[in-house]
Task: inverse folding
């Protein structure tokens, strides 16, 4: 398990080191170095898990199985590519004077701590530690959202803090109730009742249904706030559009995935002990609501990062609907969708970051003629939006294809709201994107120093997943599907 | 479980739990800032007492640790922090005008009844003789959330948030006899960091918005008419006569 | 991969060539673009040849070959299958790609020059992807591969339509095109979903094995018809076609109108006849009604256009209507148990698909060469081009005759077959059907006549009379490459028109595959006569018609022209009041004015009279400019309301994001309470 | 084998007689019309004299005319030639009859009209444009009615082949079918519109506002004009023969014996003179309609033909 500890310890030490010398120009490179180390360690761990199967750390504190191994690798990878993007981006921000040295130091250390908290949340076996990691993720990003110290940024950070704080508190209460039910069944003297593996094996015997349902409701509302499902999503557009772009890329790409991962971990427990599909129906309802409402919101946006955060809500709604649907096809589609969505969305945010720096504003009306000024950014944004809208050569289409097929098999009449949602969301996204990318650029628009490597790597990966899913990844998905939905493909 | 037959300690537990519930209602009605902080401190103290008593009744060793943690956090550190902040922000004397207090209290009562109705299904599971106080813990948590929804001042919202956290801590210690140690420490550490961050934010908010009145923070709003898109010709036939060569 | 049959390997070679063409044009970004640009069209030419030979091979040998590629999902490899139906459509696609690759190089070089020059590599890349999408779409044998390459075709079409993206109209047109294409694709996905649900599997073989209840079969058919109908541009869902085709580069609009729309028809035939199998006559009725509506409205709207490429786009809608009428009647006959007449309808529809692909591509390439030389979209700025571009004029004339369904050419044969199918209506027992089908045939005749009127206008305004603009007066003949592309298509139009019975004989394997029946009598009388049902019922001999015309020309030359004096040129009759100017000629809106008055209600007419008055006290009028535009009613009735509905809903939903934190907290509080209430 | 060859010879002879007789019918119609309007009447063979004169004249062509203008007369005449080969004038089962059926016949007329309209536009004067635009409108409205007529006949005779239909009507004897009555009336009205006779278009005048067909061929002269005039005369005769064959084909030869053929010739000549007289009476009684009254006229014809088809389907059991 030393590889897992390495994956966790590297970002933590990176965070501390950067806290000291975060403001110097070398800091960007250190950030990338630490990201690289973390990614290397996670890859080694993944290879290890691939050869030896799920692993439990000696003290049973950490547990890596098919479900969270690819999420850990994905988090480390996107963390690395976004740090590559954030170096020139932050240099540009410092040159323009929007970020002082002190805040740059804060940014770099918080960035690494944020990665550490997510990796901890993914790999821990203890539900309580999972909650602590989620809370720590919120705390680390709150200061990042208010990095630019504009009134809007401060307001966004405050709302993000309060709403997520309340949400996380509900989740804590849910964890307490699970612990309460577990203690009632397994006896109060044991100290490992909050470990997920223990709970999962014992849950098949059946924890108390009433308490588990209550716990699931609290956890659904709690982690649902962090996932950004509709009635609880209000903080997400503000936080993603006001913070620095690398941060919103990582928030949109990874944090939503981690919150949904936690929710699905709990759903496994609830499904095992509860005979009815209540958990599934609740998640389907929540997911469908956010999918359609977020689709409508896309039409009325004037800020480009805000638009893409609503697109994240929409996709998260779709994934929650997929997990809620249960069944092997839907779960496989939802798992694939989590991967491809985070890859594409972070690539889009990277391009949008450069586009906003190029146009000097985030308002859609004032961004024009990207293809003409800097073709790399123009085509990057175009292909990114094409991929996120679910067009075939890219992977998002495969997962949407699987989800639609699964819905048609189990709930045929639900395909109609899905269809309307896809159409409306596509129209909203493309209408804005087309104005930004095509047409004549306003006079005096200069190309900006942009590092498009992350975008190219992400889009190539999504394209590869669209055409052919490699065996090792697909075997992980299948094992995870068996774990989550109980049916094999 | 008739009250009469219970031992002295159990009676004390129920008394203190009821008093803690009273403090939640007091906080709802309290307009001025300083008394609000003191009431919060009192609530922390009462919850610590209940935890200690439960520890004695069910002789769970680690409950004392969580009681100590609650005491340190909810009675000493956070109230002192909030007090010093409100003194530096010179707002310890200004009173907040609560919208319609009677309706607020009635809704508080309804919430308590609702939380008892919700808790009924899980109470039978607890081994504790005085297991009804689980309902009290849920009530404190919901009242804390109500407080956040209603109050205008940012400090009041923080206090609402903190009383929610204490409600949850109380539920943990009463129903599950305290969480595993690592989790208790983690949660306590998070809450401490959160309160420090709240302090940092008070100053940012005051510099950028000029006041701590939460109602004024609506720059990022999409509801007003300005943002509405003009619906007329947006999907009109694109073909304007002969404009493109 | 090893056990691939020869025809399928050829199809893969075709796909590989188009991928190579894309890569070559991608490489042309910096170094010596011109040379690489023509190289990409060379690979496209090879792709066209491979595809058409593979299709011909599959059709002639009537063999069905399948293959599996280990791509896509591990538990669902890519299934591919080449049978007679896909072979037929591959021949169609291959021929068009060959013609376009001959036409392309010289035409696209003009895009790089001029004021609004565009970089050429994206055009090359997306043309290659467009062709690749269609090629693999035809041999797809499971829902996943079909959908992947279907939407790749739509998406690359979007990039081609938005190629000249500096004009706002182009961007709007491309957006509407992609929106409808995407929604159509999702509806197709639903129909595959229904079939997959019943056949519990995504491959077409499992779907063929599925036996659906009549209700679910109708739902699957409805989704298929709407989804593929959106792509082929039938009436209620046609709005994108007249917007997208005119703005795309001409060789791409030729491919779009010629091949892409036919993929919609291929989809309908593949799913209805092959996957669902037992056809119900109610479906045929719906297809017939929509087909008739499409053809009549398509030609009426085409008559009112004065943009040449927009006119041709509306005509695509009309011809798709005719194809759908053929399909509709075939379904009605199959549904009511007349397999022979059902086969006749299917053969008529397939024949018209092939014919339309050829002459529509020819017409778009012709319009492209006119645009290449005169930079004029508008008919009222052309005129007299027959003197300056004789060969283009001759080839465009062949296209016009073919599309107006006049005897010696291929358009007439397929329309004649559709009439013959309609004339077999008395064989039906249901008297309502027996009376509605003749009515549809009468509307088809009206469409035919209006199409002839429309193309008299199009050819007359563009090529005949005097040049109406300076650029038209200075036009020169189009380069040889373009003429070669058009010449190939014109020759095919003539051959398909003169030897119909041999072609129908070749199409027998398709109907054998789909309807398990063929038209024995069509070729019974040898290659000279076409007798679809029987010699007694109806017969048509195209070679004799051509022989007669040649005879008259020969006699005319021998008897009349050889001996007479040379021809004397003089002024035309001008009623004595002096020199005739080009402005005195009929313009396109004048030509269609009588028909506009007769069918007034069909269009949303918008007339402008702009008067320029000279300044000064007298303020006399110096010039009057009258312009008339016929807009589509479906914009007012169907598309703008939907747009307004969505945006109004979006506006109203804004209230969620009020901005103040209390409402947000109340939201989460209420959600929590509601859930708690539900649970306990 | 020789009977096959002689059959083809008979067909060629029938076509040639058809072409030769066409100007005679036109001359006869002109002569009767002048008598009715008590004007001095030219001889019956006056059209032959006009044609020979025109064939002899030197060709004068406008400056702007292209090769299309000079090829159109031959295409128009060729189309009419093919049409004559198909219509059974004297004898029924002739090999050339299988070349085309009645829909292809309509196609030949459409081909001729298409090229005449293009020739009209080629010169670049207002007359050609006006004539072409109006001619195409009239044709567009006439087509559906014509096809519905064809439908009614083919529904009863189960064929669209002209000689087979005529033979069927001949063998079924004298039957007063209401569907045939309506269809024939509609066919008559469509014929009037197609051959540009009085109510739709005035063949005699050259006034811009009233001429449709003449406007398109205004610029033609010499042998081109001869060919086009001859073609329109053939077209008139084809419609007359169609009317006869569909209504009362008694007397037409059904086997190629000399005696039957001579009877056929006599009977057809008599019937054609009768049809000529009827046409002239109709033209003198009627006045030319305003252009935008023609849609009502052709709408009425279409309604009649639809009525014919419906009566066939409903009343006559639609066997």
Result:
């Amino acid at each position: 398990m030393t590889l897992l500890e390495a994956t966790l310890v590297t970002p933590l030490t990176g965070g501390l080191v950067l806290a000291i010398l975060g403001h110097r120009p070398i800091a960007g490179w250190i950030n990338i170095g630490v990201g690289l180390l973390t990614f290397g360690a996670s890859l080694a761990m993944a290879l290890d898990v691939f050869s030896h199967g799920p692993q439990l750390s000696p003290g049973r504190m950490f547990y890596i199985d098919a479900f969270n191994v690819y999420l850990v690798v994905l988090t480390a990878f996107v963390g690395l590519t976004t740090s590559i993007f954030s170096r020139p981006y932050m240099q540009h921000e410092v040159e323009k004077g929007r970020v002082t040295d002190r805040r740059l130091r804060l940014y770099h250390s918080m960035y690494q701590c944020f990665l550490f908290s997510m990796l901890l949340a993914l790999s821990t076996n203890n539900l309580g530690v999972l909650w602590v990691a989620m809370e720590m993720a919120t705390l680390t990003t709150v200061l990042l959202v208010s990095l630019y110290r504009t009134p809007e940024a401060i307001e966004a950070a405050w709302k993000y803090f309060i709403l997520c704080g309340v949400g996380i508190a509900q989740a804590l209460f849910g964890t307490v109730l699970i612990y309460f039910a577990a203690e009632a069944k397994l006896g109060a003297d044991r100290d490992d009742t909050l470990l997920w593996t223990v709970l999962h094996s014992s849950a098949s015997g059946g924890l108390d249904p009433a308490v588990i349902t209550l716990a699931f409701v609290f956890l659904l509302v709690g982690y649902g706030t962090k996932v950004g499902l509709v009635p609880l999503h209000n903080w997400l557009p503000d936080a993603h559009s006001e913070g620095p772009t690398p941060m919103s890329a990582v928030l949109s790409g990874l944090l939503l995935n981690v919150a949904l991962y936690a929710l699905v971990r709990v759903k496994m427990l609830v499904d095992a002990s509860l005979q009815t599909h209540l958990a599934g129906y609740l998640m389907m309802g929540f997911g469908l609501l956010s999918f359609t409402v977020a689709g409508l919101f896309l039409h009325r946006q004037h800020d480009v990062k805000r638009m893409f955060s609503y697109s994240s809500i929409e996709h998260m709604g779709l994934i929650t609907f997929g997990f809620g649907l249960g069944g092997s096809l839907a779960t496989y589609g939802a798992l694939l969708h989590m991967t491809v969505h985070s890859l594409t969305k972070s690539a889009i945010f990277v391009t949008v970051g450069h586009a906003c720096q190029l146009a000097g504003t985030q308002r859609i009306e004032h961004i024009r003629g990207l293809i003409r000024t800097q073709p790399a950014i123009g085509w990057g944004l175009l292909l990114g939006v094409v991929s996120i809208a679910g067009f075939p050569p890219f992977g998002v289409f495969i997962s949407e294809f699987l989800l639609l097929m699964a819905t048609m098999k189990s709930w045929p009449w639900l395909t109609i709201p899905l269809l309307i949602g896809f159409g409306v969301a596509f129209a909203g996204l493309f209408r804005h994107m087309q104005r930004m990318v095509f047409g004549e650029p306003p006079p005096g628009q200069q190309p900006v120093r942009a590092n498009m490597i992350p975008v190219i790597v992400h889009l190539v990966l999504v394209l590869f997943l669209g055409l052919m899913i490699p065996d090792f990844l697909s075997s992980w998905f299948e094992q995870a599907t068996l774990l989550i939905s109980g049916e094999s493909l | 479980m008739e009250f009469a037959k219970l031992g002295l300690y159990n009676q004390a537990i129920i008394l203190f739990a009821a008093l803690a519930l009273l403090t939640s209602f007091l906080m709802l009605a309290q307009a001025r800032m300083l008394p609000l902080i003191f009431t919060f401190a009192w609530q922390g103290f009462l919850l610590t007492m209940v935890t200690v008593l439960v520890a004695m009744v069910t002789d769970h060793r680690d409950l004392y640790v969580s009681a100590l943690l609650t005491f340190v956090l909810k009675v000493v550190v956070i109230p002192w922090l909030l007090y010093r902040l409100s003194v530096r922000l010179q707002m310890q004397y200004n009173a907040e005008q609560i919208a319609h207090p009677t309706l607020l209290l009635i809704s508080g009562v309804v919430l308590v009844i609702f939380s008892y109705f919700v808790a009924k299904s899980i109470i039978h599971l607890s081994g504790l003789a005085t297991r009804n106080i689980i309902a009290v813990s849920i009530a404190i948590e919901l009242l804390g959330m109500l407080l956040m929804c209603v109050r205008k001042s940012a400090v009041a919202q923080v206090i609402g948030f903190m009383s929610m956290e204490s409600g949850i801590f109380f539920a943990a210690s009463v129903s599950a006899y305290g969480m595993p140690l690592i989790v208790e420490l983690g949660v306590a550490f998070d809450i401490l960091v959160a309160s420090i961050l709240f302090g940092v934010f008070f100053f940012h908010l005051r510099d950028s918005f000029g006041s701590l009145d939460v109602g004024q923070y609506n720059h990022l709003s999409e509801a007003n008419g300005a943002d509405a898109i003009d619906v007329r010709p947006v999907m009109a036939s694109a073909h304007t006569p002969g404009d493109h060569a | 991969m090893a056990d691939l049959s020869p025809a399928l390997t050829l199809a893969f070679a075709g796909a590989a060539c188009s991928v190579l063409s894309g890569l070559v044009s991608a490489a042309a970004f910096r170094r010596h673009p011109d040379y690489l640009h023509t190289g990409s069209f060379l690979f496209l030419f090879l792709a066209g040849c491979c595809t058409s030979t593979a299709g011909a091979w599959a059709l002639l040998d009537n063999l069905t070959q399948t293959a599996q590629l280990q791509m896509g999902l591990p538990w669902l490899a890519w299934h591919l299958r080449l049978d007679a139906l896909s072979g037929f459509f591959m021949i169609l696609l291959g021929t068009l790609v060959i013609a376009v690759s001959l036409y392309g190089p010289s035409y696209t070089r003009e895009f790089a020059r001029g004021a609004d020059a565009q970089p050429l590599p994206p055009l090359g890349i997306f043309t290659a992807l467009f062709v690749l999408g269609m090629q693999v779409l035809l041999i797809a044998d499971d829902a996943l591969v079909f959908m992947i390459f279907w939407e790749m075709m739509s998406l690359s079409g979007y990039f081609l339509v938005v190629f000249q993206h500096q004009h706002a109209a182009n961007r709007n047109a491309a957006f509407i095109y992609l929106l409808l294409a995407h929604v159509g694709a999702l509806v197709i996905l639903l129909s595959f979903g229904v079939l997959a649900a019943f056949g519990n599997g995504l491959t077409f073989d499992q779907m063929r094995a599925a036996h659906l209840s009549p209700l679910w079969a109708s739902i699957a058919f409805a989704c298929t018809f709407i989804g593929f109908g959106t792509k082929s541009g039938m009436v209620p869902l046609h709005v994108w076609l007249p917007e997208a085709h005119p703005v795309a580069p001409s060789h791409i609009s030729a491919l779009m109108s010629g091949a892409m729309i036919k993929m919609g028809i291929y989809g309908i035939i593949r799913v209805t006849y092959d996957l669902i199998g037992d056809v119900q006559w109610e479906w045929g009725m719906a297809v017939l009604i929509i087909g008739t509506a499409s053809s009549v409205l398509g030609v009426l709207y085409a008559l009112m256009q004065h943009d040449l490429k927009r006119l041709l786009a509306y005509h695509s809608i009309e011809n798709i209507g005719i194809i759908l009428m053929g399909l509709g009647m075939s379904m009605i006959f199959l549904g009511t148990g007349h397999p022979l007449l059902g086969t006749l309808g299917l053969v008529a529809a397939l024949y018209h698909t092939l014919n339309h692909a050829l002459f529509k591509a020819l017409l778009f390439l012709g319009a492209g060469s006119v645009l290449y030389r005169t930079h004029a979209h508008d008919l009222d700025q052309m005129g007299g081009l027959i003197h300056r571009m004789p060969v283009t004029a001759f080839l465009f004339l062949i296209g016009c005759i073919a599309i107006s369904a006049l005897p010696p050419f291929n358009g007439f044969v397929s329309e004649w077959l559709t009439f013959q199918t309609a004339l077999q209506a008395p064989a039906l027992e249901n008297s309502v059907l027996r009376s509605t089908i003749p009515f549809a045939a009468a509307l088809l005749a009206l469409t035919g006549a209006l199409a002839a009127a429309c193309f008299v206008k199009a050819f007359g305004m563009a090529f005949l009379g005097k040049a109406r603009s300076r650029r038209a007066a200075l036009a020169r003949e189009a380069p040889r490459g373009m003429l070669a592309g058009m010449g190939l298509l014109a020759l095919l139009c003539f051959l398909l028109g003169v030897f119909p019975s041999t072609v129908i004989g070749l199409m027998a394997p398709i109907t054998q595959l789909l309807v398990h029946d063929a038209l024995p009598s069509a070729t019974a009388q040898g290659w000279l006569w076409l007798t679809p049902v029987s010699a007694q019922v109806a017969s048509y001999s195209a070679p004799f018609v051509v022989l007669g015309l040649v005879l008259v020309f020969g006699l005319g030359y021998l008897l009349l022209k050889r001996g007479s004096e040379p021809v004397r040129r003089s002024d035309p009759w001008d009623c004595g009041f002096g020199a005739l100017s080009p402005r005195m000629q009929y313009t396109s809106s004048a030509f269609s004015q009588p028909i506009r008055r007769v069918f007034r209600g069909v269009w949303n007419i918008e007339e402008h009279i702009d008067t320029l008055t000279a300044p000064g006290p007298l303020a006399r009028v110096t010039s009057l400019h009258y312009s008339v535009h016929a807009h589509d009613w479906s914009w007012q009735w169907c598309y703008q309301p939907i747009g307004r509905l969505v945006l109004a809903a979006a506006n109203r939903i804004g209230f969620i994001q009020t901005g103040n934190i209390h409402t947000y907290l109340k939201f989460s509080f209420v959600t929590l309470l509601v859930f708690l209430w539900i649970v306990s | 084998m020789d009977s096959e060859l002689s059959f083809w010879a008979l067909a060629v002879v029938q076509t040639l007689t058809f072409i030769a007789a066409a100007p005679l019918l036109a001359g006869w119609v002109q002569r009767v019309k002048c008598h009715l309007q008590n004007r001095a009447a030219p001889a019956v063979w006056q059209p032959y004299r006009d044609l020979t004169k025109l064939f002899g004249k030197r060709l004068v062509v406008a400056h702007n005319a292209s090769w299309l203008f000079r090829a159109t007369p031959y295409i128009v005449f060729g189309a009419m030639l093919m049409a004559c080969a198909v219509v059974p004038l004297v004898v029924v089962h002739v090999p050339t009859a299988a070349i085309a059926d009645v829909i292809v016949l309509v196609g030949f007329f459409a081909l001729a009209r298409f090229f005449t309209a293009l020739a009209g536009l080629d010169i670049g004067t207002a007359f050609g444009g006006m004539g072409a635009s109006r001619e195409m409108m009239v044709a567009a409205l006439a087509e559906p009615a014509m096809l519905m007529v064809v439908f009614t006949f083919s529904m009863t005779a189960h064929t669209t082949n002209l000689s087979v239909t005529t033979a069927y009507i001949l063998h079924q004897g004298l039957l007063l079918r209401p569907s045939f009555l309506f269809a024939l009336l509609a066919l008559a009205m469509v014929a009037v519109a197609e051959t540009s006779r009085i109510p739709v278009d005035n063949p005699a005048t050259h006034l811009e506002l009233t001429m449709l067909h003449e406007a398109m061929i205004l610029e033609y002269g010499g042998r081109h004009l001869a060919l086009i005039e001859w073609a329109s005369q053939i077209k008139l005769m084809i419609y007359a023969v169609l009317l006869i064959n569909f209504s009362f084909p008694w007397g037409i030869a059904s086997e190629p014996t000399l005696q039957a053929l001579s009877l056929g010739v006599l009977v057809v000549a008599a019937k054609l003179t009768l049809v000529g007289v009827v046409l002239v009476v109709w033209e003198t009684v009627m006045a030319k309609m305003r252009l935008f009254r023609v849609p009502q006229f052709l709408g009425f014809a279409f309604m009649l033909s639809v009525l014919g088809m419906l009566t066939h389907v409903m009343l006559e059991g639609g066997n």
